[in-house]
Design goal:
The protein contains 22 helices and 20 strands. The strands form six sheets. Strands 9-12-16-2-17 form a five-stranded parallel sheet. Helix 9 runs antiparallel to helix 10, helix 19 crosses helix 21 and helix 21 crosses helix 22. The N terminus is likely disordered.
């Protein structure tokens, strides 16, 4: 929402210092000239003339009394601002602007201009091509190692939501089918067979070596530290003191046998490590085969639905490999800490499975226009929300900011807000130049989530008064190069018969909307005279509807207090005098 409603009405604002409006860089003037080649000189008050002359233009024929409720049939009550058609034409470049461009729309600060601009900006947004949604997915390393990275995929919004839902359904299905598959009797028997094969192969090798050693009076002993060899006599281990008493020749022969069998025992034990490795590979292959059947079944629907999208197909291939390699995640997460089984919905929300979630960043449809809640990095670029576990960044942890919410539409910011929170401008400028934004990260010491970015395709629109644009240019010389100036509404419009008729209809609309007393023709003429100025010798009518409404309300209150039912010229002149007195008092207060 624009902030114009919170400003002091133009009629009550102190006059700006001349230096603030006269000083402008050469390139600012060039930009303004290109945006408004027919820019007129500053308006000056019209020459005061007999009020009767101004009234005569709208007075009815002699003997006819007409009020605002008795207007001609072709003058209807009207709501809006003068110059609306010209503003619509001036804003036409918005519909053909390239993504990540920037505009400054100059308009008077009034509630009616604010509402009219919002309407025109949304009209321009509806003329933009339909844009894709931003889909955030996780990235996976080789061999099923999740890297914790995030990348984006562009999909039409309806398809994006369907894609995210299909992946979520597949993960929830796997939370049931994977634990069930590994717990089945056939899989358990196959796993036990592999384990038995490993144990049997090792035991057979040890038994063969044991029999061979016993035939030569050498025993293989199992100790707490592992296996050892020792001399035997009559099937019993020879004591160390007895062995030492043996003749040297016999002792040397036994020691040679011991050394030989130690070497063979080492080879058998080493072969066990080879057998163990082979067992691990075969067990892993069996697990991958079992998991692969479940994963392919779970992803079959989404794979078929999005086979025409290469980016989605590539992601699904990586997702399939990671799910198969990390099927154990589903097995360990299938039960709570006390061993109780968890429901599929609980399991699918387990933080250990968060990297499989797909996030669709919302975009305003069908007219993508975003108004940021604030101008902090989190408001503009989004935020990486803290996770409850020690996992890397995952798509579901990112909250979208206004730059992403706008999609390829418009991000609209009020100029006074941008100038008062100027740290936002470098963030916006970087995002518009690079096409990506860095979300805020509360867990980071710098507050910036390095390594995580979200795409930016929005067009920046800054709305304010011409003086705001000049101030912005003084603060950053890049503004004249990066930001295109559009004068949507001028403070005045040339006074033509059509404008006079629209002005009468505007008064009728103000009276009807605010429940005010009707005005006769002399009152309308007085209002027109007050709102008319001379610009380069041509009469111009002010477009400030707020000030016009204030005058009508002030006059209506006085007339109602006097017990009359129609506002006349004298009532309008009295309201003008009171307004001028307030303005003068405000200016004196500002000087003191």
């Amino acid at each position: 929402m624009f902030k114009f409603l919170q400003r002091t009405p133009a009629s009550e604002q102190p006059a700006a210092a001349p230096a603030q409006t006269e000083v402008s860089p050469t390139d600012v003037a060039a930009n303004e000239a290109s945006a408004s080649p027919e820019k007129a000189p500053d308006a000056t008050p019209a020459n005061v003339h007999d009020l009767a002359v101004a009234r005569a233009a709208l007075l009815p024929p002699p003997g006819v009394s007409r009020s605002i409720d008795d207007h001609p049939p072709d003058v209807e009550p009207w709501r809006g601002v003068l110059g609306l058609d010209a503003a619509r034409a001036a804003l036409r470049p918005l519909t053909t602007a390239r993504p990540r461009s920037a505009f400054f729309i100059a308009a008077p600060a009034s509630a009616d201009h604010d509402a009219a601009l919002q309407t025109l900006i949304r009209e321009a947004a509806r003329a933009l091509p339909v844009t894709d949604a931003v889909v955030l997915v996780g990235t996976f390393g080789p061999g099923g190692s999740g890297t914790g990275g995030i990348r984006d995929i562009a999909l039409p919004r309806g398809e994006a939501l369907a894609f995210a839902g299909s992946v979520a359904d597949a993960v929830e299905m796997l939370s049931v089918t994977l634990p069930a598959a590994f717990a089945s009797d056939s899989v358990q028997v196959a796993m036990l067979a592999l384990d038995e094969e490993l144990r049997s192969s090792h035991d057979q090798a040890l038994d063969a070596l044991k029999r061979k050693a016993q035939a030569q009076n050498i025993g293989l002993l199992r100790t707490p530290q592992g296996y050892a060899v020792a001399p035997l006599h009559d099937g019993r281990i020879v004591a160390s003191d007895v062995f030492k008493a043996l003749p040297e020749s016999l002792k040397a022969e036994v020691e040679n046998k011991l050394q030989t069998f130690e070497t063979e025992l080492g080879a058998v034990l080493a072969n066990r490590a080879v057998l163990q490795q082979d067992h691990s590979v075969r067990r892993r292959d069996l697990s991958a085969e079992i998991a692969g059947l479940a994963v392919r079944a779970a992803l079959s629907k989404v794979t078929a639905a999005f086979k025409s999208h290469p980016a989605v197909t590539g992601y699904l291939d990586a997702l399939r490999a990671d799910l198969i390699a990390n099927a154990a995640l589903f097995l360990t997460a299938a039960r709570t800490a006390d061993g109780q089984p968890r429901s599929p919905a609980e399991l699918s929300r387990d933080p250990r499975l968060a990297r499989y979630a797909v996030a669709v960043l919302p975009a305003a449809q069908p007219d993508p226009v975003a108004f940021p809640d604030g101008l902090e990095r989190a408001d503009l670029c989004g935020e990486l929300r803290p996770m409850s576990h020690d996992a890397a960044a995952v798509p579901s942890a990112i909250r979208a900011g206004a730059l992403t919410m706008a999609a390829r539409g418009f991000l609209v910011i009020e100029a006074r807000d941008l100038l008062s929170q100027y740290a936002a401008w470098p963030i916006l400028k970087q995002a518009l130049k690079s096409g990506s934004a860095i979300p805020a990260d509360r867990a980071s010491a710098t507050g910036r989530a390095y390594g995580v970015t979200v795409p930016v395709e929005a067009t920046l629109i800054v709305v304010g008064e011409p003086d705001d644009y000049r101030t912005w240019c003084h603060m950053d010389r890049d503004v004249t190069r990066l930001v295109r100036l559009i004068r949507a509404f001028d403070a005045t419009v040339p006074l033509t018969p059509d404008v006079e008729r629209a002005f009468s209809g505007l008064i009728a609309g103000c009276v009807a909307d605010d429940g005010l007393l009707p005005l006769d023709a002399t009152a309308i003429a007085s209002l027109q005279h007050d709102r008319t100025t001379s610009v380069a010798g041509v009469s111009h009518l002010s477009t400030d509807t707020d000030a016009l409404r204030d005058l009508i309300a002030t006059a209506s209150q006085s007339v109602r207090a006097a017990g009359r039912d129609t506002v006349r010229a004298a009532d309008v002149l009295a309201a003008v005098q009171r307004r001028d007195d307030r303005t003068a008092q405000t200016e004196r207060g500002a000087r003191t």
